[in-house]
Amino acid sequence: MSERLTVRLRCGDGRRRWVRPDEVMFVSATHFTSRAGDPELHRHLELINRVRVGDEWYSIDSSRLFGMYENIRSVYETTVYGDAGLCDAMAAHGMTLDMQGRVPELGNASDVFSKRRDAINARMAELVDEWRAAHADGMRRVRDPETGEVVGMVGYGTVAEPDERTLMRLRLQAWADTRQAKGRWNTRVDYGAWNEELRAAGYDIPAMLDGAAAEPRPRAVRFGADAVRRCAVAAVAALREMNSAWSLEQLEVAAYDQVRLTGATGTRDELKALAEGIRDRARELCVMLSEDPRARAGWAKSLTCRAVVECEDELKGRLAARGVEETANPRLDDLAERYTLDAGQREAVETICKGDPLAVVEGAAGAGKTHMLNAVNDYCRENGKRLVIATPTQKAALVAGEEVGTGTGTLMRLLEAYGWRHDETDPEHPWYRVTEGQTDHRGNTYRGVPDEYRLDHDTFLVVDEAGMMDQDQALALLRVADETGARLTLVGDTMQLNAVGRGGVMQLAERYTGNVVAMRDVHRFKDPDYAAYTIRLRERTPANAERLAGELFDRGMVRHWDSDEATVNAIAAAWMEHPDTTISTVTNRQADEVNRAIQRLRLDAGQLGDERCASMIDGQEIHVGDIVMTRRNDNHIGVANRQTFTVLGIDERSGMLVGDGKRTYRLPAEYVAEAVQLGYASTTYGAQGVTSGHAIFYVAEGASGADAYVALTRGKTGNQVFMTAGGDEDARDTLTRIIARDKGDKGLEAAANNLREQIEQMAEPVDAGLNAEELSELHDLDRWLQERKTGLLQGADRRVWASEPLPELHAEIEREQRRAGELSERIRDMRDQYETARRRAEHVADDYRDRLRELSDECGAALDAETARLERDMADDWRDVHRLLERHHEDETERLRLTDRNEPGYRSFVMGRRRLAGEATERANQSLMRYQAARAEFEDRWHIGYGEYRSNHELRIASARAKAEETPAVTDLRDRMRGLEHERERDPEISAPERLRARVQELGNEYEEVLRANADRRSMADIRHAETLDDRARLAALRDMRRPDAIDEYNSVLGRLEDGWHRGFWNELTGFREEHPNWGGWAMPVLRNDQFNYRDEFEPYFKEPEDIRYRDDAVLGTLVETAAYQRLDRDQLRTMTPRQIDQATRKLRESLEVREHDRTAVDQAWQDAPRGRQITNDLAELERALGRRPGWADYTAMLRERETEHLLGYDDSQPSISYDADPFQATPTWSAGAGHGAGYGAGI
Question: For the TrwC relaxase domain, which residue ranges apply (predicted)?
């Protein structure tokens, strides 16, 4: 804290600057009990609000102090709740300590120790009895002794009952009477008495501590590089969800939060090392908003990330594109008269109804924005338009739907209807989009846009409460609006509370469109003077904050007490007097205290029923009649987050019946347990959008002007400020600071401007002469500068950079930067065109594909038909040939019969037979010729043998199909298909994406070249500027210019040194060195093959050194001396001079050379070592092999004589140990000392 606290001093010119104090004073006190003597271990840390700067004493900048609260909290909670000793001790007894400090196994045992509450209730009963006794004498008016007001009537023996105001006064007295000073009797630590109280209440603590051991939480030292990277990504993602820019301190808080989320345990140094590792890795993912060295202050919000920059750039581009179109407003006299619109409301209605792509309506609190939207809705119904209202919250959507009566829903529901999803479990890509038919991360399948959410050119899309819309939502909404052509209007108040995440959307929209309307006529308040004051409060600045706070005092609106308890009780009494009061707090803790106080008063007054619900999120009971608030949207029930209801009935099993005066709702028991709490008071975020009769702002440090503006514009009749302060001056100062404070996120550009203002207020470094060492360093840097300059001026077109005036060079840099921006815009537009062309090409290709499929089907059908026909023709031809063959067979048979000499009667008819035989022979020859000709014709026509036709069915079909392919019916279809394919290849719509892709590539190359050249140009400008500086300033400038190159060189050598052959080995080695700082070498254990899973991953079988004596997994170990080196972290490197970094790099190179020598020696010894022999022979051979190597320890004799059998239990039955494992995959072993020596031990 002392290093990070700052004091804001007033300079002579009226400006302020920050300086670091020279002396800070603290007071610390540890208490073990509450004032009632109950166990309550806590520590008070009091900071004296005066610090010394030089010889003077100044007040601390309170905004810086409160900004450090999260740092202190995160470090404290991580260290305490992650203490390894405490967690292990509790786990041994079956207890767990989560990272919120809760012990779930103890249940509600802590409720036993609530003597303070019991004492107040008992004293309250006594005071009520005393009051009744004092007012029981005859019929008379009973007046309050302080105010003189009549509070009751007594007479005829009846007993008067105190009214609500009297009960409140009596409770305040009871609280004061029971408040005890610290003393010996209530500060003693008596564990025996406390355990007796627990046993009397039914809690058996020894039995609860006698459970089975709980699963231990992971140790911080076991987290590897991948786990650190994941945590770093998650830390940056958590920051970018909520902030456009953040500080190094906020990054540190996020890192500690990630440590707690992992559940890591360890010592304070181990947890700190893990958190710093995550912070440093996360810092590499960030970019700086300013190069000024003063921006590196831990509290300066100078960091952002590329995702934030890209989101806001695209947001600006889309808003600018919509804001270009601006037409004249129509005159809607009839509508204005019908709705009695004031000038601002009428202008807003006409601006929205003219239908330009973008409009912004700013309305002060109570200016009638809802009434204005009713008129817009009426216009849409009469003119065929459609009004759709989207709100950031479900509560606002329900209110808008009831009051306007049109299509209304949350902004997230609208985006989900168009496929957008937000996955909180994915830190790198939380926003993504699904297409129809795809399944999202919740397992739901996207079915397309429902009709009620469908937008078009005739849709007026109004975002109500747009000031609470974050940039990610706004960008997704603009993409949807651009796709559908919807007309977008942002309605809200930029001076009220902004988005919970990255905001400033309305401010950006106002910059890019002329359709901006300001509604300044306030209609909500009965007092017109107060209405005018709210306008002044809305236009607050740090300059007028003191006057605005003074006006609150002048109007009698500020009341203060000297303790928080008294303030809370006063707020509760005021609510009892006016139950229509909206109570706004700064924190949830304040709201819980007020809720409890009001509930107690209502219970004492008998206003609440006996039925109650014991389970709720803030640990309090709910009674029938209580005001409750829901804390989660539930569309099935129909309730929204932060809605308030009155409890009408309670049933432990079925849940709770609530109502809001219009309808009733049944809340299931599970929902009540998880998402219902008392709702008499809420934070200002819960109060925004509410209108009531009265309003109270419970002030606390840390509030902003937006909190004050929202809280003090809720009540129509009266608005008051209640606060804890030491007096009027203290209260006035606190209110002044709050009104002047603006803590809402308004985008990256606003963050950069705020950073610039803060830098201007920081103290400049004191100039001094250079010493000899600095002069030597400056000489080296000047030489480096000249080499750098020579390298940048390579090329004829660059030589002019060395001579042209610096303003012209800077102007050229700006021009080239704008050119790069224009190229980036062109690339983005062309990518959009590419996406459009790609989708169009896909549609056209699908059309071609469908047409080709139809032709293909038609061709296939024609081919099948022709094949069948030709098969029939082929069969007919074959049968004709077959008939000819059969005829030939008949003729041949007849010829053979007539020429057969053995036939009886042959000789008797020889003369006639010869004639007949000659005729038969002639017929056989002719039939043979006809058969042969027909067969040749068949085979020539069908390209298939006569015999194959009968025997080969597949060949027959193939032949017919081949002939069918040549038929006109099929060839015509084939030609049509080829023509269609040729047409597809030449279609410009299909080839358009490739042309656009090539053009995008060309533009991308040009863009990269412009960026590279401009970076060199900027470097030259920096060099020339540095040359004009004096020695001190030039040294600082050149150090900043040279440092990145020096760090890169250091990291390069460090990477070579740490990687080795296997990165895993050297990473383990680094961690081992952190645990054993005196260890200066590395070990080569010889391991069995089955300790490796053949994926280069080592699987150790032992965890502790003593475990090795029971195992035979590790046989030998040798310690090789290597040069030790110190690994510098990123923060150290950033604070070092380039010369110091170069010196560290030289040491790394020396270590690398020594390690390379040793590794070569190890490798050679490994190759020389014998293999596959028994251990005794191996020891002897290995001893001889290693003994010839210089610098090696003679360790084998010691292993053989004293350790081998003891550690391994080796005997002849043990298997032979082989030396086949790679030594560089093994983990280092423990050693008693550095340098040479034998060592053994467990793997890391």
Answer: 6-199
The DSSP code sequence of 109-130 is GGGG--HHHHHHHHHHHHHHHH
Residue 218 Cα distances to 221, 266, 503, angstroms: 9, 9, 38
Report d(CA 448, CA 434) in Å as an integer. Answer: 10
Residue 367 is encoded by which pair of tokens?
Answer: 């200016």
Give CA–CA dist 1243/1085, Å, rounded: 10
- Give the C-alpha separation, 580 to 121, whole Å: 27
Amino acid at 431: W
Beta pairing partners, 492? 362
Distance CA 1104, CA 1230 (A): 10
**Cα–Cα distance between 182 and 30 in angstroms, integer?**
13
Residue type, 177: D
Please tell me the distance from the alpha carbon of residue 244 to that of residue 264, in angstroms, as a whole number. Answer: 29
What does the longest C-alpha to C-alpha distance in the chain come to? 175
Structure tokens at 1198: 């010691």
CA distance 647 to 629: 10
**1093-1096: Cβ within 8 A, 24+ apart:** 1096/1062, 1096/1064, 1096/1225
Reference 602, options 636, 647, 644; nearest CA is: 647
Per-residue HEC secondary structure of 391-430 comes to ECCHHHHHHHHHHHCCEEEEHHHHHHHCCEEECCCCCCCC
* Measured distance CA(982)–CA(517) in Å, rounded: 58
- Compute the average pLDDT of residues 1072-1085: 40
Predicted structure pTM score: 0.57
Cα distance between residue 553 and residue 537, in whole Å? 14
Give the pLDDT confidence score for residue 548 in this predicted structure: 92
Q: Per-residue pLDDT for 1119 more than 80?
A: no
Enclosing H/E stretch for 666: strand 664-667
pLDDT at 1088: 33
Query: Residue 242 in 3-state DSSP?
Result: helix
Q: Are 555 and 530 in contact (CB under 8 A)?
A: yes
Q: Cα-atom radius of gyration of the chain, to the nearest Å?
A: 44
Residue 1206 structure tokens: 């003891």
pLDDT range class, residue 702, cuts 50, 70, 90: confident
Decide: 687 and 468 in contact? Cβ < 8 Å.
Answer: no
Which residues are registered as beta bridge partners of 432?
A: 421
698 contacts 585 by C-beta, under 8 angstroms? yes
CATH fold label, 541-741: Rossmann fold (3.40.50)
Q: What is the mean pLDDT of the chain?
A: 77
pLDDT reported for residue 743: 78
Nearest to 519 by CA among 348, 355, 351, 357: 348
Nearest to 1229 by CA among 1053, 1045, 1084: 1084
Cα distance from N-terminal residue to C-terminal residue, the chain = 36
Q: Output the CA torsion 1152→1155→1159→1161 (10° steps).
A: 120
Per CATH, 324-524 and 541-741 having the same topology is answered yes
Q: What is the pLDDT of residue 907?
A: 55
In this prediction, residue 1191 has a pLDDT band, given cuts at 50, 70 and 90, of very low
Distance CA 2, CA 25 (A): 9
**Residue-range domain boundaries for the chain:** 1-60, 324-524, 541-741, 964-984+997-1016, 1112-1161
d(CA 96, CA 103) in angstroms, rounded, equals: 6
Nearest to 987 by CA among 847, 778, 892: 847
Confirm if 1082 and 1120 have CB atoms less than 8 A apart.
yes
- Judged against a pLDDT cut of 50, whether residue 735 lies above it is answered with yes
Q: Is the pLDDT of residue 860 over 90?
A: no
Asked if pLDDT for residue 1117 goes beyond 60, the answer is no
For residues 242 and 256, give the distance between their C-alpha atoms in angstroms, rounded to a whole number.
17
Q: How far apart are CA 440 and CA 417, in angstroms?
A: 13
Q: Is the pLDDT of residue 559 over 90?
A: yes
